[in-house]
Design brief:
It is built from 14 helices and 18 strands. It is α+β, with helices and mostly antiparallel strands and 665 residues long. Helix 3 packs antiparallel against helix 4 and helix 8 runs antiparallel to helix 9.
Length: 665
């Protein structure tokens, strides 16, 4: 265990060291990209200002040109009017006759002709001014400026393309850094969980050592008292012996029998053997009692309830006194109440101590996992306050001893499917993963193909998924993505499962609260669809394994979610759905005719598993801190109500096909 922790520490240090240069490079790229972007933006602004100034100058020149054209038109109109006037004046003079009149008319006509010439000269000068070389030069300069701007724009586009390439490289580096960060978080989580479990195991060992020492001291005191009693009996026998030779002989004989170490050792061994036989009979009887109890619970259809207390974590502070005391029988516990000296006792199907590892927990639920392979609908869901270890129980961390129920369940099914291939059984397995966030279904595997490969990132919206019911009245999720798990190759199947878990972990809604650094803000449901067929017997079995990681119930004053509108909305949706789940269990326990499954998406999704069609098991996760004793007490009371619910015998989904037809039950 210590070597494993040291390896994790080294891997964590290596990842941290490899992360630093990547972050430095990313920061350098980001700074260079920001500076270049600011420079390009300033140049673009300058070009835009220059273009606006050029447009204004062009508009002014157009306005001047229009004014000159208008003035030219006016002058032309005036010239034409003068020509008409001069022609009319000459005609009237000829009609009147007379030398004096002719002279005056001639002089006036000459005057008008001169004015017309002046006007024409002025018109010509205006035309020359319009067609002046300065305008052509200015036009050429404007064209050259526009050409230069176009060149600058092309250069800016090329620089933008280069920056876009650099940005893509930077994005690739960020994705690599994100992968390293995710791996570092996984290793950190695994290290924290392993350290906490190791501390809990050490505490249990210390408690066992203390208890054994106390028992040893008690046994030693008992044997000392027994020795004193034997010595006293010897002295009494000797005092009764008298001084006769016969009596001395008898006294010696009796004394030798009492003082003989072999006789005493034989008596002790006989007593220890008898004690061992009684303990073995007690253990066998306890195992038989549990087996009969489980059989009775299965026949009655009771929802099985397991309780697990997590060990103390570093963020719990210096607290070391647990509010929960687990009894040696492994089925009972007591929890401290609100007041000093107040205690509450509970009994469930199984109670796990903080030192219980992931493997021990899965051994208890492996029977349910096997039921899914036998054709039953099985539902395992974890319940408890936020930060009590629900996600760790269901998913775990890493690929070693800290793996949770989901990867271990898939591994067990792959092993059993491989063993059953020798009996001509063929299995197919598909996995899907969804979350219920604010009463909305979300597919966590929307970015994965059916073969387990990742899709190319695009801008198209994900398909909306919904809960529907088929012709047989069974619920299913319409539009959800299903990933094939390779059954023939165990290593490939586990690799596909790991890809599914990583993709789901990235897509799931989590946030930081005062009670948990990574608090799940949604209910997640991992669904494993199994189908097996046997050609020789014509048997077809269809089973499903639903593993639910419920979001934790929380109080706003402890989690601090009330200060954030988004967190507040999430907390309200979580508590509402958990309250609906409690209403469903209450109605089932009371035998009500109407069960409010449709009050929330969570209960509607789990309707088949909670209505007698399948087997159900609830994990109640508890926090050992005294500050969480109130929430733990509420969780235990809720679990006690759930444990009393009787669903009836589960239905096995088996279909028998033959040449003449098929039957189903």
């Amino acid at each position: 265990m210590q070597r494993r922790i040291e390896n994790l520490e080294r891997e964590k240090m290596d990842l941290a060291m490899s992360k630093a240069p990547l972050e430095a490079r990313i920061r350098q790229k980001e700074d260079a990209w920001i500076k270049e972007r600011e420079r390009l933006l300033s140049e673009i602004n300058n070009f835009q200002d220059l273009a606006r100034e050029t447009d204004e100058r062009y508009r002014e020149l157009e306005m001047k040109n229009e004014a000159l054209v208008e003035e030219t038109m006016k002058l032309r109109l005036e010239a034409r009017a003068l020509e008409v006037y001069v022609g009319g004046s000459g005609g009237s003079t000829n009609n009147e006759g007379g030398a004096g009149g002719t002279t005056d008319a001639w002089s006036e006509r000459v005057k008008f002709n001169n004015e017309i010439k002046d006007v024409r000269r002025e018109l010509k000068s205006k035309d020359d001014e319009i067609r002046a070389p300065s305008l052509r030069i200015e036009k050429m300069s404007l064209e050259s400026e526009v050409f230069a701007i176009q060149k600058d724009v092309e250069m800016s586009n090329r620089e933008y393309e280069n920056l876009e390439k650099d940005y893509k490289e930077l994005e690739g580096s960020q994705s690599q850094n994100s992968e390293a960060q995710i791996q570092l978080e996984v290793l950190t989580t695994e290290h924290t969980a392993m350290t906490a479990q190791l501390n809990a195991t050490c505490a249990d060992l210390e408690e066992i050592k203390t208890r054994a020492k106390a028992d040893l001291d008690a046994k030693e005191e008992q044997w000392k008292n027994r020795e004193k009693e034997l010595l006293f009996e010897m002295s009494v026998l000797k005092s009764r012996a008298g001084k006769s030779a016969d009596d001395d002989y008898l006294d010696m004989e009796n004394g030798d029998d009492v003082d003989d170490p072999a006789v005493l050792k034989a008596r002790i061994e006989e007593r220890d053997r008898r004690i061992g036989e009684l303990e073995e009979q007690l253990l066998n009887g306890e195992q038989l009692r549990r087996a009969l109890h489980n059989r009775i619970q299965e026949l009655r259809g009771n929802i099985r309830v397991f309780v697990r207390t997590r060990p103390f974590l570093p963020n719990d502070g210096a607290a070391s006194n647990s509010s929960i005391d687990i009894m040696p029988d492994g089925e009972s516990l007591s929890i401290q109440g609100k007041h000093v000296g107040e205690g509450h006792g509970f009994k469930f199907d199984k109670v796990f101590a903080p030192s219980a590892g992931q493997g021990l927990v899965f051994d208890e639920v492996s029977e349910f996992v096997q039921s899914a392979l036998d054709g039953y609908n099985v539902c395992l869901f974890s319940y408890g306050q936020t930060g009590s270890g629900k996600t760790h129980t269901m998913q775990g961390s890493g690929n070693g001893a800290m793996r949770g129920i989901i990867p271990r369940a898939v591994e067990q099914i792959l092993q059993q499917a491989a063993l059953m291939q020798s009996q001509r059984w063929t299995f197919t397995m598909k996995a899907s993963f969804l979350e219920i966030y604010n009463e909305e279904l979300r597919d966590l595997l929307v970015m994965m193909n059916s073969d387990g490969s990742l899709k190319h990132r695009d801008t198209s919206s994900a398909n909306k998924i919904s809960i529907k019911r088929n012709q047989e009245g069974k619920s299913y999720v319409d539009g959800i993505n299903k990933v094939d798990i390779d059954v023939e190759d165990k290593a490939a199947g586990l690799a596909q499962l790991e890809s599914v878990m990583v993709a789901a972990a990235r897509a799931r809604s989590v946030a930081t609260t005062k009670m948990n650094a990574q608090s799940s803000r949604s209910h997640s449901v991992f669904m494993l669809h199994l189908c097996g067929s046997n050609e020789e017997s014509g048997t077809i079995v269809e089973g499903a394994l639903n593993l639910c990681d419920l979001a934790g119930s929380e109080r706003l004053d402890r989690s601090g979610a009330g200060s954030d509108h988004r967190r507040l909305k999430e907390t309200q949706a979580i508590n509402k759905s958990l309250s609906s789940l409690g209403d469903v269990f209450t109605s089932l326990a009371n035998g009500s005719r109407h069960i409010p499954f449709r009050n929330s998406k969570l209960t509607y999704l789990l309707q088949d598993c909670l209505s007698g069609d399948g087997k159900a098991l609830m994990f109640v996760n508890l926090s050992p801190t005294i500050e969480s004793s109130n929430e733990s007490l509420c969780s235990l009371r809720f679990a006690q109500r759930v444990n009393a619910v009787e669903l009836g015998k589960a239905t096995k989904h088996v279909q028998y096909s033959s040449k003449g037809g098929s039957s189903r039950r």
